[in-house]
Every structure is written in C-alpha cells, then in structure tokens.
Specification:
Radius of gyration: 14 Å
Distance between the termini: 18 Å
Helix content: 10-25%
Shape: globular
CATH class: Alpha Beta
Order of helices and strands: HHHEEEEEEE
Number of strands: 7
Largest sheet: 7 strands, antiparallel
Number of domains: 1
C-alpha cells in the first residue's frame, strides 16, 4: 500500500481512505464532496461515520465499531487508527492514519504533509487510541471485485 499525502490541512480522513482504496487524494476528495463530506468539516476528524461512508463508496468494508488499541500485534492487517486523540470543548478529535501489515512488514501510512517520510515504523512514538478494521473490497455476485 502506498501513502497518500493530504492536500488540505484537515484532510487526514480523506487521505487515509484514499490510501486504503489505492486512489489519489484529489480523486478521493472529489468522491467525498459528492457525498457531502468536506475536509473543512470538523466531524471528519471527530466522528467515524464520514470515513466509513467514504470507504463504502470505494467498495471497502469498515468495521461497525472501533476497538480500543491494545498492542500493535493485536491489530488486524489493515486498519485506520486514531492518533493524537484529544478533547476540545468536550468533543473528541484525532488524526487518521493507516496501519498495514503485509509482506513488507508492519508500518503506518501518515498523510501529514510536513513529514519527511509518510511510511512510519516508529511505533513507540505513536499513541493510538483505537482502531477501525478495514476489509477487502466487496465482491459482486459473480465474484469479480469492483
């Protein structure tokens, strides 16, 4: 999986969905806009419903519920993580990143533009609050992937 850099300061949820779907940020942002989702909407980084809807638009299945983070080993092979979790005026906020475990090992794709590298393996520096498992693309009745 390849990282996608967010083009909007608050577009981490769109970038995370784009990375999982294998799309560019601009294409994912256009799909989000067609669903009424904007990077400027604070609910994108304080509510999971928007990212779930965007993943569904790309034919991907997201878990219904988040799971509290226990350990890196306990994570599924592909998940969205909430890092930098905090409350502002009683409302939760976080930064979306993508956890991947594949033949290249385990790593996190972080869309923050200011990073030198968007593939992170500095697990001790990240403090995930919870994860949202992301499944494979849905299959059509005939078995072909969308």
């Amino acid at each position: 999986m390849k990282p996608v850099v967010q083009e909007d300061r608050t577009g981490c949820g769109i970038a995370a969905a784009a990375a999982v779907a294998g799309l560019s940020y601009r294409r994912a942002r256009a799909a989000a806009a067609s669903l009424g989702i904007s990077a400027r909407d604070e609910r994108l980084w304080s509510d999971t419903a928007y990212v779930r809807r965007l993943l569904a638009r790309f034919g991907l299945r997201a878990a219904t519920f988040t799971k509290p983070f226990r350990s890196w080993e306990a994570l599924p092979d592909r998940a969205l993580l909430a890092i930098k979790w905090h409350r502002r005026a009683g409302r939760p906020f976080w930064h979306w990143v993508v956890f991947v475990r594949d033949r290249d090992g385990s790593y996190v794709l972080d869309s923050k533009r200011a990073l030198k590298t968007h593939v992170r393996r500095d697990f001790g520096r990240m403090r995930p609050k919870w994860s949202l498992a992301v499944g494979a693309k849905r299959r059509r009745a005939g078995g072909a992937a969308r």
